[in-house]
């Protein structure tokens, strides 16, 4: 049995950076530290952070007078002001790639452009970006939604950093029919692109594909979709415990990939479990 692990599997730069900041602060601080929403979409890591008194809150008021870590997804601009009013010290771990999208949205909104975000309206990163253009963006994730949009004189388009290139290409083509003055910023992050490409390459050549990552992790769900399109025998799991080795009966080539919020130790657990079954 051969096991192929996709390059760039696991933590991306933005997630590593946010976790490093959280662990460093937890080591220095005696009081409870808060994070605005779960720091990453991974239950196992969140539970380790809770052991260190790093606790997730959903509203600013809950962190009154304390330190609040902003996760890599970022936050709407007004939350910084709310934090200030509540005497909260911010440790900003917004990923620099996300910050670039937020600043682009703000710059072009201020110049009078209608901002369009290609992405999931419920994803915190998209909610955050929208909050940098006065919550006035059109948020689209399919062609039907583009068709429902009016003609826009000045349009600026950005992307949620984790969407697929396929989605960007399909939607941007249609958006070009909706404006004569369109500024396009393909803000899909390089880490996402490399991970998707590497996973697709592996999925094309194996008989079974294991995608590891939180069930709520948007980039893991997309990885699973990509892998499934090339390898029908693809599964999405959060930890090695969910792996049923029966599915590998009679299979020689197995691929593994993992989303941006999956720690190495979970990936290694999965590899070990398959190896013990006879992998190399
Ligand atoms: S996926 Fe990309 S943009 Fe998002 S946190 Fe990771 S490095 Fe940053």
List keywords for this structure.
single chain, 280 residues, alpha/beta, Cobalt-precorrin-4 Transmethylase, domain 1, Rossmann fold, 3 domains, 4-stranded parallel beta sheet, flat, binds iron/sulfur cluster
Helix-strand blueprint:
Elements: E1 2-5, H1 13-28, E2 33-36, H2 43-51, E3 54-57, E4 67-70, H3 77-85, E5 89-92, H4 96-110, E6 114-118, H5 124-130, E7 138-140, H6 143-147, E8 154-159, H7 165-175, E9 181-184, H8 190-205, E10 208-212, H9 218-230, E11 234-237, E12 253-258, H10 264-275
Parallel strand pairs: 1-12, 2-3, 2-4, 4-5, 6-7, 6-8, 8-9, 10-11, 10-12
Helix pairs in contact: 4-5, 8-9
Give your account of this protein's structure:
By secondary structure, this protein is an alpha/beta fold. The chain has 3 domains: 2-10 and 191-275, 4-hydroxy-3-methylbut-2-enyl diphosphate reductase, catalytic domain (Cobalt-precorrin-4 Transmethylase, domain 1, 3-Layer(aba) Sandwich); 13-95, Rossmann fold (3-Layer(aba) Sandwich), CATH 3.40.50.11270; 97-188, 4-hydroxy-3-methylbut-2-enyl diphosphate reductase, catalytic domain (Cobalt-precorrin-4 Transmethylase, domain 1), CATH 3.40.1010.20. The chain is built from 10 helices and 12 strands. The strands form 3 sheets. A 4-stranded parallel sheet has the order 1-12-10-11, sandwiched between helices. Strands 3-2-4-5 form a 4-stranded parallel sheet, with helices on both faces. α9 links the parallel β10 and β11. α8 (190-205) runs parallel beside α9 (218-230). The longest helix is centred in the first third of the chain and has 16 residues, at 13-28. The protein is flat. The chain starts with a strand and ends in a 5-residue tail after the last helix. The model has no long low-confidence stretch (mean pLDDT 94). The protein binds iron/sulfur cluster (SF4). Iron/sulfur cluster (SF4) is lined by residues 12-15, 72, 95, 97-98, 161-162, 189, 191-192, 260.
